[in-house]
Amino acid sequence: DTLQNYTTCVAVGALDRSKLPAAAPALAKAQRALLAFQNVEANGYSRSDRDYGSIGYGGSQRGDISNLHFSLQALRQTGLQTTDEAFAKALVFLQRTQNLSATNDFAGKVPDPERPGVILDAVSGDDGGAAYYPGNSSAGYIVRPDGKSIPRSYGSMTYALLKAYALAGLPGTDQRVRAAVGWIQEHWELAVNPGVEPEAGPKAQYQGLFYYYLLMAQALDTCGIDAVKAHHGDQVASIPWREALRVHLERMQREDGTWLNEQNGRWMESSPMLCTCYALLALERCR
Asked: What is the rounded CA–CA span in Å between residue 128 and residue 125?
């Protein structure tokens, strides 16, 4: 009842994978439902609204990039073409989650996700990565001398952004895509979900780790990227990410065959079932 968008996207993925002609009517109905979730004019939103173009957990709930990338994937699986206006409107929201001031026009008051009652004056940064939704980051903030706060880009959401851009039809030459890839190159990492502020402590960098692996694999595969040019200081190394991720996940697998985020169970990663599903879906893209 509270996760209608996620649940519908999972069902669409399963029906699409079945390749059964009999699934077509259900997929068509699901497409209409997903489009009805989008925060656009039909639901009382205008382009100037922070959540315009987004999709949240379902109904009229506020949007976020995590829900949206699954929605765009499901819409494509139902046969919706990138020429549909839903993708153009989604791009308005997507670029507002990205720390790229040339295309991010969002600035405004947002609640601090870690400190109830605290309101931040958020603006865009320029590192090319992404936050959770405009002005909101679970990785913390960079406070400028003028008191304005830049939401920190972090790994899972930057890969979510890259995947969503590809699903929306943006080419690799687009400045928004290149900026996201640039952040990934500067923050290539498998041990942790990168980007969290150091003050949050070592445990925080493990939050959402297996979701990070899932989105890494889906984003890079969807974009047709075979190797990541990882930057480490003055050195640049070409990383065949499929092999690197496969080996890393194999080493993390437990004796009973499952995976588990043993460092940080936030966002339900205390569940072996969920972590194992994330790992298997990531490994599927490592072939």
From this structure: 8
